[in-house]
Each structure stands twice: as structure tokens, then as C-alpha cells.
Write a sequence for this structure.
């Protein structure tokens, strides 16, 4: 059976699509499934933000076929691990958890790089292109650590 991993942010168009694309590119697709979702509903069915598509593309990753979905409580059963991008996503997802087992599946993705420091992946939605390069670099580092550990 495949190990299923979910990346979560607020809109599911900027950060978590990059996290999904990056981790997917580092894992064996026969053994792992990686998806992403937003805690918000605004971008369900939408493509990722063009700035995320662009930064991924210039780094050799195609995320253009991804479509937005909203995080649902049933995802606690569907996924083995849920990585959230920031502390606000963490609170929103934890509020939907029904058991300790659900809660145990959730962690901040940058805990991988800066354990116990509660570091957020900043939301680049309202910023410039620099923001997306910065987010890509952070998620590249975090997903390399995750892939090395679980592969
Ligand atoms: P994301 O960024 O959570 O990294 O996808 C956002 C994108 C859109 C919105 C918020 C955050 N929005 O409010 O539409």
C-alpha cells in the first residue's frame, strides 16, 4: 500500500502546490502519493497561481495540472501524514481533528528544517516574485529532508 502525504496551506494555489510538486519529484510514485489542499474554499478546482507555476517550471517541475481542493475532515483517514505551511493552517486543521491519532498526523513543514522553532512558510500571495523564489527554496530544503527520511 502507498504512503499518502498531504500538503496544506490557506488557498491551495501558492505554497502547498509547490510543496506537492517538490515532494512528488523526490519520491517513487509506486510507493507514495502526494496531494495538496487549502483550508479555504476560494480556489477549489482552480490551477495554481501563475507565479507558483512559473517558479516551479524554472526549476524543472510542472505543477500546472494540479487543481485546488479544500481540506475535509475525511482527509485524516485518507492520508498518513499532513504537512501544514504555517501556524494558522495548523490551528485550522487541528480544529477538525477528532482523535489524538488525527492530531498526530499533522506537523508544520518547516519543523523539518528548524525543529521546535515554529517557523512559518510565509504566504507569498500578496508579495512579489522574490517571495515565490524564497518559498520555493524553503520547501525544496524541507521536502529533501522528508524524502530522505521516508524513502
Ligand atoms: P496559499 O496563498 O495559501 O499559499 O495558497 C493564498 C492564496 C490565496 C488566498 C490566500 C492565500 N486567498 O485568500 O485567496
Amino acid at each position: 500500500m502507498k504512503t499518502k502525504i498531504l500538503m496544506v496551506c490557506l488557498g491551495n494555489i501558492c505554497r502547498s502546490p509547490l510543496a506537492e510538486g517538490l515532494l512528488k519529484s523526490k519520491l517513487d510514485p509506486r510507493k507514495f502519493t502526494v496531494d495538496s489542499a487549502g483550508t479555504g474554499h476560494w480556489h477549489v478546482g482552480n490551477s495554481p497561481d501563475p507565479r507558483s507555476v512559473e517558479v516551479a517550471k524554472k526549476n524543472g517541475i510542472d505543477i500546472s495540472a494540479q487543481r485546488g481542493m479544500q481540506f475535509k475532515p475525511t482527509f485524516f483517514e485518507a492520508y498518513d501524514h499532513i504537512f501544514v505551511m504555517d501556524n494558522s493552517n495548523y490551528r485550522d486543521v487541528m480544529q477538525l481533528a477528532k482523535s489524538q491519532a488525527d492530531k498526530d498526523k499533522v506537523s508544520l513543514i518547516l519543523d523539518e528544517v528548524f525543529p521546535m522553532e515554529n517557523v512559518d512558510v510565509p504566504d507569498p500571495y500578496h508579495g512579489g516574485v522574490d517571495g515565490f523564489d524564497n518559498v520555493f527554496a524553503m520547501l525544496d530544503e524541507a521536502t529533501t529532508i522528508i524524502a530522505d527520511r521516508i524513502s
Summary: The mean pLDDT is 97.
